[in-house]
């Protein structure tokens, strides 16, 4: 039997057997030879001569006859070999991704595994498991599906690539056709689920399929009389393959048309620096504007740079420290200009300063409406964590893309900013304003870098505005605020400060979904509080030095008239503190007298 099972075993004995003169054959052997003669496909050649022709041209088989037969010496499937599935419709009903499918009759040995993979890199059991899983995915059309990645997570990319190369050479499979058939089945399942939901039936009640369950859609309908037809099967396979290729071509064509027809417009979110870019689904129909948009995207160069934490943060920290330090040094020598040197004498110094800041923000907002400026603004007017430019921590404070975003930052800045500016000079106000904005964006850079959110971008003056609000209410935390004279004792400034902080704390855990740069808000508010405290302590220190010099000059010269004059001055001071100061146009602040008086105690 070894001659028939392994034609590579020995050619000479078969040659002698074939050249020996045949004798008459009788009995059952005669019927067997008649069957062999009729079963051969070549009418003029016997099985013996065919085996001889192949045996003499092939290398000697060193394995056992059974092994040679199992490995496919005849290059065909027999009754003793298992069928290798190659088509999507051949998937067994119990197929699971974690088990895969057989890719050959016998698994690879360790020697064969070492030839396919790098020697010693993987064991034979693991290699055969990987090959079975990948072959099953090729047949099931899920080779690129990330939902099954966990089953091959323990293997490296090089091992997976080597396994796929081996399978594609030894077991050819039409992967595109199988993937297309799988996609059709999934679409049919989705449509069925939507139809069930429309009828008020839950898909779970009907029996929804899981990721491991594969429903095989028949390619053609079997004829009830003549049964299966090979021609119908080939025709159905060709039609399915053509449909899959046509669907891929249409998808590629739609993508090209969308890229050529225009780019998606950017939409910025609510007040507060926007943490992410939101797509609104609209198209830029003007081809010239679309060209500017694509050029701006290229010039923006927002591809994240994968560097260390300090390489990303330290340059920005250095620039912010130097700029704010320079502004703080200017405050020590700055003097308010006389009215004769001012251009707009009808406006107060506070109004002129705040209006100049608002005007700069409006100019940048209008610049965003000019397409040729998009490339410049993308580089220098937006903070991008993945590709940060240190100067953007300062310039992004003047950048707004939406009118609502601009108004919600500039309106509070005008009323509260002018009130704060009246108490400090211009240099101190500008230093505090820029420090709040820079500290806010520096906080964003640190937080998002630590969390690995390199695609985050942010812009807006919310850090500056919230910092000014915090500084003002912290400086007047003991004062009472009344609206139309109510309440009588006024609302303490610390309560209003809490009302400013509370909405920011409410966004914890929801900042990214709400497109709010919470880190920038909290960083700006913290800097506003610290900056106001520094200014107040500096003022008290300066006043203390002045009072000491005045006491040294006056020595002990105090008379009864001076004491009476002091009492009259205290009464006038109380009356001055009781007056209402217009802060927001409709919000008044009144500072009560001493705690022994009968009126407001705060």
Automatic annotation (TrEMBL):
Q: Name one Pfam family in it.
A: Rhomboid
Report one GO cellular component. Answer: membrane
| Molecular functions per Gene Ontology | serine-type endopeptidase activity
| Keyword presence, Transmembrane helix | yes
How does this chain sit within the bilayer? Multi-pass membrane protein
GO aspect biological process, one term: signal peptide processing
Bias class Basic and acidic residues marks the residues at 548-578
Output this protein's name: Peptidase S54 rhomboid domain-containing protein
